[in-house]
Design brief:
The protein is an all-alpha fold. It has a domain at about 30-50 and about 70-145. The chain is built from six helices and no strands.
Length: about 150
């Protein structure tokens, strides 16, 4: 079964939270391949290589995804999820208005929000609740979006 991309966004998100996994439990492999295909990686590599960030911030390796750069350091992951990904991935994923791409954007928004809250070094009941809600949504959508991985 494949995900029906003809419904509107709210219908798709409603199916993410439902017990009926038949609507989106299996995603076509072509959609998963699009997430990090050669064109997408080339755009991410270009962004990493050319993004202007303060000199005290360490750039992640521009050849992200290649085995030759080895494992990413923690600060590289942080820069990817707080600086680079929020700029480049929405641009890439919003080119087509498919529900799958909209779900990827929502997923990115949820994880980025959680990271920003944690990295704010502030705490309150409101921030804890906001972070928990976004993390719950992130986990739920990741399970659906990446069920074939």
């Amino acid at each position: 079964m494949t995900m029906d991309l003809s419904n509107n966004e709210s219908d798709f998100y409603a199916s993410l939270g439902s017990d009926d996994d038949s609507k989106c439990s299996e995603v076509e492999s072509s959609h998963l391949a699009y997430i990090f295909n050669a064109l997408t990686l080339a755009e991410i590599h270009n962004c990493i290589a050319n993004i202007i960030i303060p000199s005290w911030i360490n750039h992640p390796p521009a050849n992200l995804g290649d085995k030759c750069h080895g494992k990413l350091k923690t600060d590289h992951w942080l820069i990817l999820f707080t600086v680079i990904s929020p700029f480049i991935l929405p641009e890439i994923w919003s080119r087509t208005k498919s529900q799958y791409n909209l779900a990827l954007l929502k997923n990115l928004h949820n994880v980025t929000t959680c990271i920003h809250i944690v990295m704010s070094y502030m705490t309150s009941s409101e921030l804890a609740n906001t972070s928990a809600a976004h993390y719950h949504d992130y986990q739920a959508s990741s399970t659906k979006l990446f069920s074939n991985m």
